[in-house]
Fold Calpain catalytic domain-containing protein.
Amino acid sequence: FHKGDVLITTATGVMSEEEGEKWGLVPTHAYAVLDIREHKLFWLYVFLMLQDLSSFLGIFWIAWEDLCQYYDVIYLSWNPGLFKESTCIHSTWDAKQGPVKDAYSLANNPQYKLEVQCPQGGAVVWVLLSRHITDKDDFAHNREFITMVVYKTDGKKVYYPG
């Protein structure tokens, strides 16, 4: 973070106007993390809140525990220049295609094979899974989630979790 390799943002969820005023937060609003410090065994974060360019609402510190209580999400946006090589795959998948709960079958879920050719000693691989939300209501209520499970199968399709 302090090297400038990652941009951290966080966002509040739905809350009443009373709650927002009580905590000094805007409901369903994004905040940029400007600094992170350890202070007497507490992690503190600095946020810049700009509602619009003409309205500067302030910079404030918040403890990690309070961040976890009052914010719904944290986003980490990594500098792509950190990676010597990269590949990007864009795909779509409607959650209604697969089972509602994939604890029983993975047959209809998207599956990808990752093959890494690297020098002796191994390599580090980062995989970014990103869900593009196009429905504001879905964003507010997080009705659908995505996840990734890694299996070592020599490229064979996985039908059942395990």
Summary: Strands lie at 6-11, 30-39, 42-52, 55-63, 73-78. Helices lie at 17-23, 64-70, 136-141. Residues 17-23 form the longest helix (7 residues).
